[in-house]
From TrEMBL:
Assigned protein family: Belongs to the peptidase A1 family.
Protein name: Peptidase A1 domain-containing protein
Keyword Transmembrane helix (UniProt): no
Record organism: Mucor flavus
CDD domains: pepsin_like
Keywords from the named record: Signal
Gene3D superfamilies reported for this sequence: Acid Proteases
Domain Peptidase A1: start-end pairs: 53-385
Signal sequence segment: 1-21
């Protein structure tokens, strides 16, 4: 993600400059860039062939390794514990977290039920311990040691979740104990509130240009607490929706229009787009997806289990938010499905969420890998940035 999620997963890159207040827009025309400081970061694998954004982390002293899913819809951290007997825990290839083997572990003697939506329920005991990931160090961090994990896919490549949503919506804590949420809690120091999280991509401009729809090479992305202004020359800030439409993650904005020239022109009212790292494709409501497939003259291929269309029908994808418009070139939202470059499929999926509102668009990791994605808690906004060398028309 050398794009903005830190290298926010399509822009997952290291972030060096840390600032207390981010400029409303940043460009190379500025005479001075913000002051640079050391930015805590962790690298991870990304790209079209990578199903989830997962970071390698360590818990306790001595350190016990665990992989965590980056989750923009969740507000806490949990990891499977040794007392967990759910299928999720039994499917793990690595040892589960054992608090008894950590000299820095503190049992808070509290239980919590985390509701992650879409019938994903985690029951956990609350602990404090040290957590590391790359150069990120979370001292005395509150997290859930899970003893029951339900609703997650079988054989996951992660043992827990690293939440980026600064508000935990579950309210079933079995006492009056309420841990802090957001980046101040994650970093363990008050000044962390001023640090946005970002994801970026470490793929060079040359290698990006050489990629084709046929072969999307694996990439290295970075998740950071801060923004590396040496990587981006333009940032568009997206405010939270002007009104709330049901229970949904924090990182979202008003969606006004989705357009593919000569194919489809969808206009929306009371519709939101969510920046959701738990899904890969752009998840589209069934009705809107049907209109897109109709415009592309797509037919369902039962062998590939995808809707397929002639590549020449595809044009740039334009997504208009309330504050900014982004454009994805054809190669960014389609994949080639034959050896001749004639037939393509879209990086879209039908949204099957049962969470309200079901009509929302969910912009997954395949979308975010095209930008430097910033999650700014203090400003209550999401940022999409362009890397040096990217076409300025991709963000207006």
């Amino acid at each position: 993600m050398k794009y903005i999620l830190s290298a926010a997963i399509l822009a997952l890159v290291s972030i060096s400059p840390v600032v207390n207040a981010l400029p409303g827009a940043y460009s190379t025309e500025y005479a001075e860039t913000p002051a640079v400081a050391s930015i805590p970061t962790v690298k991870f694998s990304c790209g079209y062939e990578v199903e989830n954004w997962v970071i390698k982390s360590g818990f306790g002293t001595p350190e016990q390794s665990a992989k965590l899913l980056i989750d923009t819809t969740f507000g806490s951290i949990f990891v499977a514990g040794v007392m967990c007997h759910s299928d999720f825990c039994g499917d793990q290839s690595s040892p589960l977290y054992n608090a008894g083997k950590s000299s820095t572990s503190v049992n808070l003697h509290q239980k919590k039920v985390f509701n992650l939506g879409d019938e994903k329920i985690v029951k956990a005991d609350l602990y404090r311990d040290n957590i590391t990931a790359g150069s990120i160090e979370l001292h005395n961090q509150i997290f859930g040691k899970a003893f029951s994990v339900e609703g997650f896919p079988a054989h996951p490549n992660y043992a827990g979740v690293f939440g980026l949503n600064p508000v935990d919506v579950s309210s079933d804590l079995e006492s009056n104990f309420t841990p802090g949420y957001g980046y101040s809690n994650l970093l363990g120091r008050a000044e962390a509130d001023a640090l946005p999280a970002a994801v970026g991509n470490e793929v060079t401009q040359a290698s990006r240009k050489s990629q084709t729809r046929t072969n999307d090479v694996s990439k290295v992305c970075t998740f950071s607490f801060g923004i590396d202004y040496t990587l981006v020359y333009k940032i568009g800030w997206l405010s939270l929706p002007t009104r709330e439409f049901g229970k949904s993650p924090f990182w979202k904005t008003d969606l006004e229009c989705v357009k593919i020239n000569g194919v489809v022109d969808l206009k929306f009212t009371k519709t939101i787009a969510e920046f959701d790292t738990t899904v890969k494709d752009i998840h589209v409501p069934h009705g809107d997806l049907a209109k897109i497939h109709q415009g592309l003259k797509a037919t369902y291929d039962y062998r590939l289990k995808k809707y397929v269309f002639k590549c020449c029908y595809a044009k740039d994808l334009e997504i208009s938010f309330k504050d900014h418009k982004v454009k994805l070139p054809v190669e960014a939202w389609t994949i080639n499905v034959d050896n001749f470059g004639e037939h393509c499929a879209a990086k879209f999926a039908a949204s099957n969420t049962i969470e309200i509102p079901t009509s929302r668009w969910r912009l997954g990791t395949d979308f975010m890998e095209n930008f430097y994605t910033i999650f700014d808690k203090q400003g209550a906004q999401t940022g999409l940035g362009l890397y040096h060398g990217q076409n300025p028309s991709y963000l207006t």
